[in-house]
Amino acid sequence: MTRAALLVCPASGKGRAARMAGSTAAALRPHVTSLTQLVAHDAAGTLAMAHQAVEDGADLLVVLGGDGAAHLAIQACAGTTTALGVVPAGTGNDFAAAAGSRSVEDVVHGTRKQFDLGRLSTGRWFATVLCAGFDSAVNERANALRWPAGPRRYDLAVVAELMSLRSAPLLVTTETGTFSLDATLVAVGNTPNYGGGIPVCPGADASDGLFDVTVVEGGSRTALARMLPTLRSGRHTEHPAVRTFRAREVSLSGGNGWVAYADGERQEALPVSVRTVPGALTVVGR
């Protein structure tokens, strides 16, 4: 039995989390010693409440929300003994999928496991994918769209961003070397998916202590448009313009003003540096 906190982000999934709050609490309560219920109405509140739950000694923090809420909870739980469970109720839910949680039942009946995290030089943690270039521009546009919901929002943003596609000089440095190229996007994956299930780094594994990095070299709009449909299947890695490798540390610079996104959340403009921290987070899932 455990002391648990349930952190509800009612705006997630256009109100889906709010509608699920009562049934989620009811499903959790028989399986924990105590359950503290918390409701956060914005990002600052989510972060503060997650930190408070950890400081108050919660053995398990359950977040009812999407990837944005999970990203904030990770900032509180990383490097602590508090396990994180996520009941997916957002738009993309990529972290929940990677953690093995598709419903509250997966948290209730799941097991605890260690999960690698990425850490930026700013101290910020991320769990899924850090990206920059075309894909981060898609993220910016998708986050601004009010319609449609779910993965189709990203599909629409992709089409719109293709219209203004430009490659940029990119310098990539790892613990084993440095290379430069003209690129349209770069993705540093702790887990395979971003954007609601797009396997941009299909071989990434959050238990191997390594990032999987995908770089798409500069090309025409037509070439990229032909490659993009293969992203859904992970077959883009077969394209000659795509370079993949693994590394423990990655620094990205150049990009002509590219902004990095991690877990779907805006971070900072390049240059950015990230490193893997094996087993930094305890997650609960199947």
CATH top level class name of the largest domain: Mainly Beta
Specify the structural class.
alpha+beta
Number of strands: 15
Task: Look at the structure and give the mean pLDDT.
Answer: 91
By DSSP (H or I, 4+ residues per run), the number of helices equals: 8
Level of helix content?
25-40%
Q: Beta fraction of the residues?
A: 35-45%
Order of helices and strands: EHEHEHEHHEEEHHEEEHEEEEE
Look up the CATH topology of the largest domain: Tumour Suppressor Smad4
Q: Label the overall shape.
A: globular
CATH architecture of the largest domain: Sandwich
Please compute the radius of gyration using only Cα atoms: 19 Å
Terminal-residue CA separation: 18 Å
Cofactor: Mg(2+)
Domain DAGKc: 1-124
Family: Belongs to the diacylglycerol/lipid kinase family.
Keywords: ATP-binding, Kinase, Lipid biosynthesis, Lipid metabolism, Nucleotide-binding, Phospholipid biosynthesis, Phospholipid metabolism, Transferase
